[in-house]
Amino acid sequence: MSRLRSALVFFLFVWLLPAGAVTAEIRVAVAANFASTLKVLAKGFRSETGHRVQISPGSTGKHYAQIRNGAGFDIFLAADSARPERLEAEGVGVVGSRFTYAIGRLALWVPRETGLGPADEYLRFAGFRRLAIANPRLAPYGLAAQQVLEAWQLWGPLQARLVKGENAAQAYQFVATGNAPAGLVALSQLRAGGAPAGTYRLIPEGLHQPIRQQALLLRPGEAAEDFLRYLGGAAASKLIQAAGYLAPIDQ
Fold it and tell me: Alpha-carbon Rg of the chain, whole angstroms?
């Protein structure tokens, strides 16, 4: 009899729970440059809704391949617009859910330099041994770095000195650990660590294609849809801009 009473109490408790009390876990494949910002956003989202965000950082190119092969992510936060657009066109993801959540900025960072002049002059005349960039084939920040070097006619001359990270975060780590004395890195990576050592120079936006970082809902779900609405909201936008991104231009 006591077991029956306990069961009835339990089911009555569950039945009376408000809908918002049911929590879920959202699996997000996120570009490495945005991972630290996403952690802050995920914390705020959880405090509001109770839903947890499981973060899987990596290169946009690798995430694209994983998603095409059936990886169980709910949301894709890419560092470009091309791959989310491609997935949507290929029938992977929810049509009409794609939007730009941030515009990335690229910077030349020299940790041990305090009197850094124009970025192109440093790259052209300084005697550095290595320059870290993200891999242009996998990471949009790497493609942007290549476009900048091509615009300055330095892509060919600097080939022997380039060290390529798998993603923007790894390119940043090459410089932060001293394995490369300079790097073309995401501004957000510099902001994430507080005041960066040395000096950095923002790269003019006109030298590379805009780094439009787009989100795509990969499978329908109330919690995932709620998070994308949260990501596109005013509070999240303010935090994203403070983290070193420009406001989305298509919202």
Answer: 21
Q: Which residues contact 176 (CB under 8 A, 6 or more apart)?
A: 111, 193
Tell me the residue ranges of DSSP E strands in the chain: 25-31, 52-58, 75-77, 99-104, 106-110, 131-134, 162-165, 182-186, 199-202, 211-217
Contact status, residue 220 vs residue 26, Cβ threshold 8 Å = no
Q: 10 Å Cβ neighbour count for 16?
A: 8
Least confident of 125-134, 163-172, 193-202, 224-233: 193-202
Are 125 and 200 in the same domain? yes
> Is there a domain that residue 164 lies in?
yes
Total of domains in the chain: 2
Structure confidence by residue, pLDDT tens digits, 198-228 = 899 999 999 999 999 999 999 999 999 999 9
Q: Is residue 45 part of a domain?
A: yes
Whether residue 228 lies inside any domain: the answer is yes
Phi-psi region of 237 (alpha: psi -120 to 50; beta: other; left: phi over 0): alpha
Identity of the amino acid at 73: F
* C-alpha span between 249 and 27 (Å, rounded): 26
pTM score > 0.85 for this model?
Answer: no
Are residues 132 and 221 part of one domain? no
Task: Give the burial class of 78: count Cβ atoms within 10 A of its Cβ; 0-12 exposed, 13-18 middle, 19 or more buried.
Answer: buried
pLDDT tens per residue, range 106-152: 999 999 877 789 999 999 999 899 999 999 998 999 999 999 999 99
**Same domain assignment for residues 91 and 132:** no
